[in-house]
Amino acid sequence: MELTRFVGVFGGPDHRITYANGDEVASLAFAFAARVVGGSLVPDGAEVLEARYATREEAFALDLSPPVRRALMVAFEDGDGAYFDPPTWAPPAGPPRDA
């Protein structure tokens, strides 16, 4: 693969997951567009069971999570700049701490 552009950074509320055991995680995803220059896709059999190339129509016909769907929508656009999810966190208000 040869990277062709930086698509964007994706995070925020859609990237928070609470597992059945109560564990909570948050992810931040960096997306890149690329083109195939050789080789083949090989799933690892543990985390990736199937890997293939898909057209836009084929990709959006899949059962995608909201974060993946949003990243694909941005990736398939022909925008010049990179996308950044708006921030959802701010430092607590209050007096500045002494240095």
Structure description:
Strand 2 and strand 3 (24-26) form a beta hairpin. The protein has one domain. The strands form 2 sheets. The chain has a 3-stranded mixed beta sheet with strand order 4-1-5, with helices on one face. Strands 2-3 form a two-stranded antiparallel sheet. Helices cover 16% and strands 24% of the residues. The mean pLDDT is 88. It starts with a strand and ends in a 15-residue tail after the last strand. The chain is an alpha+beta fold and 99 residues long.
Short description:
By secondary structure, this protein is of the alpha+beta class.
Protein topology:
Layout: E1 2-10, E2 16-18, E3 24-26, E4 29-35, H1 56-60, H2 66-76, E5 83-84
Parallel strand pairs: 1-5
Antiparallel strand pairs: 1-4, 2-3
DSSP helical segment count: 2
Distance between the termini: 47 Å
Instruction: Please give the largest β-sheet.
Output: 3 strands, mixed
Number of domains: 1
Q: Which spans have pLDDT < 50 for at least 5 consecutive residues?
A: none
Please indicate the percent range of residues in DSSP E strands (runs of 2 or more): 15-25%
Helix residue percentage: 10-25%
Task: Write down the overall geometry.
Answer: extended
Count the E strands.
Answer: 5
Q: Give the ordered list of helices and strands.
A: EEEEHHE
Determine the structural class based on helices, strands and strand pairing. alpha+beta
Report the radius of gyration as a whole number of Å: 18 Å
Averaged pLDDT: 88
Lateral arrangement of strands in the main beta sheet: 4-1-5
